[in-house]
Amino acid sequence: MNGDGKRLSVGEIAAYSLGSLGREFSSNCVNAFYLVYLCIYQGLDPIVLTVAFVLAKVWDAVNDPILATLVNNSKKGKFGRYRPWIFCGAIVNAAVIVAMFTNVSFSSVTLKYVYYIIAYILWGMSFTVLDVPFWTMLPTIANTTDDRNRISSMAKLIGGFGGFLVGMLGTSVILPLFMDKGMMKAYQYLGMAAGLVMVVFLLIAVLGTRERYDLPHENVGLRYILSTFKSNDQLKAYAGSLVFFLVGTTISLSQVLYLYTYCYEDGANYLPKAYSYTMFWVISCTGQGIAMIFYSLIVKKIPREKLYGISFLACIVSYVLLFAIFFFLEPGKYVLNTVLVALSGAFLMIANGINQIGSTVMMADVVDYGEWKTGKRGDSVMFSVQTLIGKFAAAAATLVLGIGIAVSGLPTITDMPVVDRNTGSVSTVQLFTDDDGYYLVKDEELYENLLSTEDVDKSKLVKIDEDEELIESDDLTILRAFMFLTPIPLTVAGYFIYKKKYWLFGDKYDDIKREIDTRRNLS
Known about the structure:
Elements: H1 10-41, H2 46-73, H3 83-100, H4 109-136, H5 138-141, H6 145-178, H7 183-208, H8 222-231, H9 233-253, H10 256-263, H11 276-293, H12 295-301, H13 304-325, H14 334-374, H15 379-408, E1 412-419, E2 426-433, E3 439-441, H16 444-451, E4 461-463, H17 473-485, H18 487-501, H19 506-522
Parallel strand pairs: 3-4
Antiparallel strand pairs: 1-2, 2-3
Helix pairs in contact: 1-3, 1-4, 1-6, 1-7, 2-4, 2-15, 3-4, 3-7, 4-15, 6-7, 6-11, 6-14, 9-14, 9-15, 9-18, 10-17, 11-14, 13-14, 13-17, 13-18, 14-15, 14-19, 15-17
């Protein structure tokens, strides 16, 4: 094993962490906005999409290890083994994101489904190409547990901030700024912005880090992948516990936008339309940031293995709190309601942040364990498991929420041109649309303006009384149940898998690490 033996510099930690922010822009943009865009604004069937997305993850289960094998078996060049893959994957992924959020006009609705589903599949494949080498590179940057804790905690902190930024960028800047041009165009600008930010920050990671440790490397194939899962009991324990945890948190966090779409003042009258989603993420991510900043100090007081287990239990409490708090909200109390929801979300984000750091360090430890047990590292293949788990969690969340949307019967939203009768100016408004295609309008002035607009089908306009609810409270309760109660049994299962099966920490891990270091020095 080569390396200068020096501790990681602040610059290297910062560069790698900014790369994490970039990759989160891609992941969170798709997880938070894509299904919303397709179901609410494109009017596509959530059941058809969710089934297709889950099948796409079955394909991911096949191609992720194959792509990881290509990365693992690639030759180390001037810029290292992993950094070229990261940059090339980012370029392709950015192009795909723009395509995903581009409005297409086909004579057949079937072609529209095919286009957006294929785009989703290509996004998953290109994300693997950048994500697997990004995390695989970690042991080549940091060799000690202390350095891994430092760089992992900062990377997850900054990455989590990236998740907040893409939500803020979308809901507080791009979508409001361009919604007069129509939500289709606004979402396309969102995809362009997310792709650009991702490429810039991953380029910083590529240029600002160095693969200083030349770890043992062997070419591996699919047979090795299957044997690794069979022989590496800690990999199975890690994967089993994390997948249940991530499915639960992804269901709750990635689709919170649905609640803010249907709960604002034109809908259920619980939350303010302007910037409420941003306020949620500001408060929630502040909690996560505090947990991640002080993770290194906390783990000195509470052993990492106990802290990781606590994160599961804290999530269960937060799910119950998030579900229950909506029954205490009062219509019209916008600021108070938003703060209450955000504070309960912050509790979930704190637990999620602690789990993210712990799971990343655990993955590096599992790679070491695999080397100790089999003599082969297979870094990229091992880290592809983490990527696959994340994408499977997103697909499972999409499936659950797609079913929830279908069962709750919530209306879609349609872009509609409107001419102001007083000024003659033309703008685009968003109207709730029921299952029969009728446009539901509360505002009297807007209704009159729509009647004066030539391109509007007047027979489809329905004036709703001011005291009439556009969104039924029972429908929202169904959606909230899918979002916050479904994750509870999943998280419980993940906790018990971790407690019963995972033991790679403390003196046991230290002994394994010393032995593999000795083997490397003797070879």
